[in-house]
Design a protein that fits this description.
Chains A, B, C, D: Pathway: Metabolic intermediate biosynthesis; chorismate biosynthesis; chorismate from D-erythrose 4-phosphate and phosphoenolpyruvate: step 7/7. Chains A, B, C, D: Homotetramer. Chains A, B, C, D: Belongs to the chorismate synthase family. The structure is a homotetramer of 367-residue chains. The first copy, chain A, has a single domain, classed as Chorismate synthase AroC (Chorismate synthase, AroC fold, 4-Layer Sandwich), CATH 3.60.150.10. Helix content of chain A is 25%, strand content 22%. Chain A has seven helices and 18 strands. In chain A, strands 1-2-3-7-4 form a five-stranded antiparallel sheet, with helices on one face. The radius of gyration of chain A is 21 Å and the shape is globular. Chains in contact: A-B, A-C, A-D, B-C, B-D, C-D. The interface between A and B is large, with 126 and 125 residues.
């Protein structure tokens, strides 16, 4: 069963554990003739790499990606692309006590309950290191999108950290702060707040928003391959994510029909909307507006404050997770969310091309 | 492409339009030897049926389900089960103007942009009538679960309507009010509030919570077949849903690591937890706690207040959606959410049985 | 698990038993905007229907197909098409002894061993009646192919019956004989031979050849979605099929490399080949030549000569299968093979469109 | 689209080209707790490796497999297993003329027509080197089968080469000759015949038979996931295969119902059959008899005799394929066929476990 795969047409299978020899992604269904090289992917992996600022774990991971197949003379061939990232930092350290103890908030206990096997080396398959493979695959998707949807832009950032919510959405701002937040004022609040969290050896959650601008109208599909269904699955599959919202999200519950309606006018290039409560998706199909997704990441479970837990033999213990951890893993989830968005949007463009093709609708449909 | 299907092992494909001859679900992968008859499914269809109280649309739909295949002498045979619900209320009415106009908030415009075809009869495939087929399939799942997970209970209800939030979680209360809310006090607030909405010809959104009690520890799978991933997709695929939460949900963003930690103790039958911020899922795998999902339903888009829109030829119009509509579609989404939960949980039990089987873990794993 | 489904993009799920209320096919992934009505499908169902000549079973089956969804105002909508054929001849006859006995050569015993459930009414799900649903789905595929590959022609016929092998391939001859054989001389031999078989209450096997002319070069995909892989699966899934060949088939084993080579010249419209040992497929991808598939159907297992078998309780019995059976089921397998070819070819055209699109190769590739 | 994947539960995706940096297989869905190391897999890779006798190409390929993920402390973990084989012999040689010419019988021309990209280095993705990855994955399947079906034995060999057909089936004989044929007399004929072919710079086709002994009754599934359907697809997906047979195969066409019937008696451990025309499968489900598959491999297309072809620009050329080629590629297809059989049988055992479980039938069903 391909439970480590996602995507219908652009099919990505990730593999690998945090402390094994390597991890990576097998990408099947990539169109041929697209210029791709490892350097293009490295750009995104570097965005996800830890240790760029004091707000991230100070671990060193080279995260260099190699392309082992599916690219020939600088172009995709249409055959599976194998992306491999070797794990350079696999020193055999003393896992003695950790190996016997379940860390609260981690998947240690559920993997053990499911498989009866525990890869105690830093989380094994459940480690967030797996998301490096997603980012590499997302890099491929971005290159394909350049050829199929030239005006498309995918951009994300932190819009909430702990109690601090970003209100502005200035997407040109994201490169100016270490949180990729589209709100310069929020960036300042985050920095001060997170400094406190970090010094208290605590951690905090976050909300990430990812926006796709320039998505053609008409992609997505009823009723279990909806664009929003696939986005919800994509984002919820990221480590530590506990909620996903499209457009108005959970707040839609508090609105009346009048307040929630996005009115429609005819613009020069197709329909234009008075607002975007829908988040760019109606009935699972894109409207041509910005596709807007948000997801909440829980606070890092590894903290220095002692927490009660049990061992494999059922004895009570206190767990303190030492080591270098991100005080807010949400920050490094930004490029991961962007990668998932790129994969899902590309997937649905390919699907539309295959299943509908030129038989498209009249008003601003997909080319 | 099976975009109208969901589930890995227990695979449900729904088909049909709101005003065609019939709609239904094809269920492939149901284990053999499970007692099933149409009456068992009818119970759940009746729960979803409109017109039970003044808070629902007064349309009449018989919603009688027939089993056309896969059941012999009262037992499932292991072959596909075809469930058909005939549409009794298909009178040919004058759709003249509606057929040319896009209703704001509906999928009329995106279907048109995607397919160039519009089934204007009440929403066609994008109609919430499709969820009747899900409820029928969920009824099958419930019968199978009785044999595979005898202690399991799946129950849901409205936990928010407009500004009113339910705080209690007394699941024995849900049969006592028309909102299946687990909070008797909230029920009173909902009733009064919705009466006002209804009389104002408006509509309002809602949050539904669905809980699965007695889910065995160890079901789910890394990393794209996570239990929470599949639940997020299942709920987001329901009409009008804009957000999905597991456990703490979006609120996890505001917590610190200390506040979010579910501490673990050893109980007589396996691990017990001090709290359930995780919503019963760690690393995509069930912990044995209650699995808790919430989803937000936007307000009914069909309202009597005029809204600006365009026609197929791009001309501006004002749209007023007459007819009998639910003032809060969230109410009738409760049995739909329960059905999706039943399908997903069963699916993962079958998956676990196939992929892990007896090679399971030591502490309270799946039998 | 969708084990009752086939196809990647054009996805067909069949359901139903020989003596249940109905059987049919759910077709997901059909492009929109294609003119379809039940009459178009009926043409192919009538070709498969029994009792047309003395060489077929004299059972009466109306085999009338209804379209329950996915077609609106005479056009496909892009949503699932539900095709239903009601079983009219379900009289409750005395199955008393049959229900307890396993008929040699039938799936009675293996279904019992697998499921512990036996639908003894004429084979249940394993009955060849299931192929009526395939033929209906194939009818849809043919209509779509008219729009996507206008010059395509799919035609099949009996090329071997018992010891008699057809040598000619005059495909305009097939409508002139009850075996749809492309060899008039063979038709005469078949008729005389089968008359003897029929009168001896025996049965005989057959080989069917199905040819697709005008398949564009470049469809198919490495390495497990090869065009020939999918054709082999499609044909082997038909009841009673024991072998599948592409082009030279099993005879390729006896050839040398020189004899087997199809030499290539450049013609006015692309490459032309000196021969077609390859059966129109190289490396799993179409060459533009005729795609040629053959499959062998075993003799009808239901014969009047007594055969030794056992009962459900393990006692020895002699089985004589009375009733009206086809002396050569291979004849009625012809439209089934054609339907499978239509589905597979369409599926791969849609796949190519989605995954490769305009990025195609230079010499006579798919448009 | 996962067109480079096969299997339902035990899901194998192969990747890589003949002259890229590496090739391999991603195995998803392997049960946990199974002892596996690279040495176990190497045994089967060595069986497929070229250059063992004068009857095979004298190319050197190290074919050393590394396990990059999914195995921890010598046991499978239940997460994806990445198997990588580095290509050691990738010297940059002068492909100048080959790169512009299409070799008859090869996929050069169809890949070009499909993708507009040609990896001219030894066949690229269409090279038979891809089968090394299958053999590695098959090695994993064999280890799992040891735990799930202890008595199972999978064995194959050449049963036809050119005009020479093997009649004996002494499976203990296969290790005694370089053709793994179960007929010692045939081995002598093959050797003499192939020596002539080799010296004439020609090539020849072959038929391979693969048998699975000890397959439990009751695995397989109607009607598109039949055991024989999946075996037909698995074998037809191997390079150069043109035909697949189950049991009696194409010869079933020449039989009468009386001759083809496998009569049933009750033995001490379940049903026993008087013969095995069915090849161990009825209605797509195993009977408990030997599962018998045969497939025909065409003669190696690369021969020294000149053959007419065209260049990418459409000019006529004569092609002579120099280099070290197998005179009968069928020989090295034996371990590949065995690997596919192992994967398919394991896949269906896992499927049965998941979908039917303990609800199995009464007479000798799957445990």
């Amino acid at each position: 069963m391909s439970l480590n795969s996602f995507g219908h047409m652009f099919r990505v299978t990730t593999w690998g554990e945090s402390h094994g020899p390597a991890l990576g992604a097998t990408v099947d269904g990539c169109p041929p003739g697209v210029p791709v090289d490892a350097g293009m992917l490295q750009h995104w992996l570097d965005k996800r790499k830890p240790g760029k600022t004091k707000f991230e774990t100070q671990r060193r991971e080279a995260d260099e990606v190699r392309i082992l197949s599916g690219v020939f003379e600088g172009q995709t061939t249409g055959t599976p692309i194998q992306l491999m990232i070797e794990n350079t930092d696999q020193r055999s350290k003393d896992y003695g006590t950790i190996a016997e103890t379940f860390r609260p908030g981690h998947a240690d206990i559920t993997y053990w309950q499911k498989y009866g096997i525990r890869d105690y080396r830093g989380g094994g398959r459940s480690s967030a290191r797996e998301t490096a493979a997603r980012v590499a695959a997302g890099g491929i998707a971005r290159e394909v999108l350049k050829t199929l949807a030239p005006g498309l832009r995918i951009i994300g950032g932190l819009v909430q950290m702990g109690p601090h919510v970003a209100h502005a959405r200035d997407w040109d701002e994201v490169e100016n702060n270490p949180f990729w937040t589209p709100d310069a004022a929020a960036a300042a609040h985050y920095a001060e707040y997170l400094d406190g969290i970090r010094k208290a050896h605590s951690s905090v959650g976050a909300v990430i928003e990812v926006v796709a601008q320039g998505v053609p109208a008409g992609i997505g599909a009823p009723v279990y391959g909806k664009l929003d269904t696939d986005l919800a699955a994509a984002m919820m599959s990221i480590n530590a994510v506990k909620g996903v919202e499209i457009g108005e999200g959970m707040a839609a519950a508090a609105l009346t029909g009048e307040a929630n309606a996005d009115e429609i006018d005819m613009g020069p290039d197709g329909p234009v909307y008075s607002s975007n409560h829908a988040g760019g998706i109606l009935g699972g199909i894109s409207t041509g507006q910005d596709v807007v997704v948000r997801f909440a990441v829980k606070p890092t479970s590894s903290i220095l404050t002692p927490r009660r837990s049990i061992t494999k033999s059922g004895e009570s213990v206190e767990v303190v997770t030492k080591g270098r951890h991100d005080p807010c893993v949400g920050i490094r989830a930004v490029p991961v969310g962007e990668a998932m968005m790129a994969c899902v949007v590309l997937d649905h463009i390919l699907l539309h091309r295959g299943q509908v093709g030129a038989n498209r609708g009249a008003i601003g449909g997909v080319v």
